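Two quick folds needed for the group meeting slides. Do the first one here.
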Amino acid sequence: MIVVIMTITLVIIHILPSLSIGLNKLTITKVKLCAKMFMNMSELSDLINNALKDRGWSQTKLANLAGVSKGSVSNYASDKVTTPDEDTLIKIGRVLNLSPETILRVAGLLPPKKDIDPITAQIIHLVSQMDDVDKKAVLSYCNLIVEESRMRDAADEFLHRYNRLDHAEKMEAQKKLLRGLGLVATSRQGSD
């Protein structure tokens, strides 16, 4: 069924506009939006079902926590919604720790934001709910992770270059390192 609908969608989006068959631009735009919304609803149902599975929740539990009907959750989770309701989606998103912007984008009610991936959007949403002290702690932790990553990259680069050296060059590099750490006396220190 989905394959048939997606095929029809592709025909509507890509072929009909190029044909002069009396469809006005507004009609084509409406059809495109409906087709896009249908394809996004599948992504939304996947998001909800994965969240339920990850948390070990039933649809009923999500509905109760969100303050929406079980039928609404069931319809979103089974891809049966044709006209999504923003308020319901925002309530569901809140319980799943998704920002209103994220869940509305996934549902196709907002245009996609290409420069922020879903994980980053979720991190931003969660951090926006914190007080300043917690935000500073998260920032410090993020800086630490980035610095550790840079150090790992630098160490990897060093090892890559070191492994390309011959034996004599490796011995000289080791001496320089030990001198730099102050573990081996330099020739001047040894002659004093």
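Then this one, please, same format:
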Amino acid sequence: MSSSTPKTFLILDGNALLHRAWHAIPPLTTKDGRVVNAVYGFAMVVEKMLAELHPDFMAVAWDLPGGTFRHEEYAPYKATREKKAQELYDQIPVIQKLLDAYSIPSLSAPGFEADDILGTISTKNAKAGFRTLIVTGDLDALQLVDDATNVVFFVKGLSQTKRYDIPAVVERYGLRPDQLIDLKTLLGDTSDNLPGVPGIGEKTAFELLTQFGSVDGIFAALAKGDVPEKYAKKLVGKIDVAKQMRRLVTIVRDVDLGDFDVAQAHVRPPDMAKLMPLLRDLEFKTLLKKYDSNTSSKTVVETRRAKKTASLPAATLAELDRHTLALTVTHKATDLFGGTLGAIALSDGKHTLVLVHPTETQTRDVVTALAEADEIIGHDLKSAFHAFALAGADADTLATRPVFDTMVAAYLLAPGGRDFAFSDLVREYLGASLPDDADALGNVGAVLPRAWPSSPRILRCRLLACFFAWSARASRLTVSGCMNFPPHLT
């Protein structure tokens, strides 16, 4: 960034984005029943804004519980708003704790709303030569748009945004940003329970503002008799109402923010000592996966290396013990015959069989072997069995076999979860990461904790599925391999 380029201060409208996240993210709970969908959505907003807008400074503005100066002046202010579920408000301190881990300050002031914080920060930034980006789901902030301030508005959910500068505001409303204050003065705001000037509708308001420029201009013209009679009769005696509405709808730009200094909002890396435990507690697997690479090298895990025996011939179906078989499959794009089966990997815990692009006969033989097993272990076995059926095998023979499906188990442990990717389960329950390096097959033992001999059966079963899911992927399914398990895993 050149010295002539103004620095960017990103300020998030905390309460507006909280409500947007609450509605945009489906119900999401942790294993102990805490509702965290708004926290997750807010975290995604933070991640998205950091990645796309690259701000130099970042902060979040919040409402405080209780009334504001607007409530004191006009008692019915926001009186008709429906109170949201307590589960929503309970997430605010969790979000603020998460922001602290991101090193992003939260700003608020008694008697004022988050919008007033936005207005104050943008005004201070303009004086300091900074550019301000206001991130919100509330169009009220558009009155703050000027040469130094833009609004990033979430159009739909938390995915699509639109950036408003002065031309964009004019294009949408046919009015300048500052005239939006006058528009809202005349029309009021039903969501805030503000009536505006009685008798003035949207069409009239736009016509008056187009002709006279502002509310002050309208009433000045009214005093001179220059307002057409059809409008004048609606405005007579309403100047005090208009002045009050204008005070209530105008965002304050000079709130006392105490000892806040812009340096506190300087964007810096997250505090991983705070962030990682919090992400684990909230069970945010996507973010854990993102930041795991930054911390995995520091994680103290006692490991044991499994011996690679790649020179051994691949096991055959006949060599696999039928007591317990672990299964994983990979899928490919649907072929001309409707098939989706890319490869099959089987293991009895001692030997591995990998079939790349299996024929229909090979698939049928695999299904026969699985039907003879005392137990089948895998992740998302329903998908695997469906792929067998599409490949021409009689998968119905597997319907009565005892199975242990790690995806189903994960759901039962956390029915409020949204994603049960196998790599996430390995990270969460085994404290290990699945390597992405296809050449690291011989190092698989390095990610297997030695604690497994005393682990519950559920972890041993996950290990079997984990190992072969990983080995099939890591070898890019181009070779059939055989690997001996450490003795304590058999």
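Slide caption for protein two: The longest strand covers residues 149-156.
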